[in-house]
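// run 5 | inverse folding | seed 20
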């Protein structure tokens, strides 16, 4: 099964199906600050050391795979329907959910369309900076006015442990 291709013109790897057999990821950052993000928005951010300086939580062998991570959630306030900017973690039916992920040198772009709403999120770390940027563009592709809410979830180590403690 084909999950993507190399775009030589833009120097990117393009993932065309979100249901890849494993985690596909991209590195972003510079010498001191970086992030690893998967084709479904999961990943983690770190300072100085990938192994020792993690600022956010990620488990490589997690079940379900690709959780937790850096996620964008969208909700139609009238219908109550919700989805994610990347396919995970909501995982809408792929017959209704259009998707593309572009891995470039130092950035990742995840584009999707669901319920006639397009979401394009660009993740990157500016050169020599110690922060991560998520640039989100939404577009209503229908003729009717839509009332949407957008939420982000960045699961840090401390928020993960607080959530886990509350669940126990």
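// decoded
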């Amino acid at each position: 099964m084909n999950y993507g291709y190399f775009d030589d013109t833009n120097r990117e790897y393009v993932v065309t199906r979100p249901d890849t057999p494993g985690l596909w990821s991209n590195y972003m950052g510079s010498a001191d600050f970086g992030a690893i993000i998967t084709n479904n928005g999961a990943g983690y951010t770190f300072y100085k050391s990938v192994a020792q300086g993690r600022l956010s939580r990620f488990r490589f062998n997690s079940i379900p795979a690709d959780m937790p991570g850096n996620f964008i959630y969208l909700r139609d306030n009238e219908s109550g329907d919700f989805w994610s900017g990347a396919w995970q973690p909501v995982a809408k039916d792929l017959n209704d959910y259009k998707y593309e992920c572009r891995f470039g040198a130092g950035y990742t772009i995840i584009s999707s369309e669901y319920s006639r709403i397009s979401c394009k999120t660009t993740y990157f770390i500016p050169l020599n900076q110690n922060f991560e940027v998520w640039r989100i563009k939404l577009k209503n592709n229908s003729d009717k006015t839509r009332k949407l809410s957008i939420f982000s979830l960045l699961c840090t180590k401390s928020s993960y442990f607080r959530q886990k403690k509350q669940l126990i």
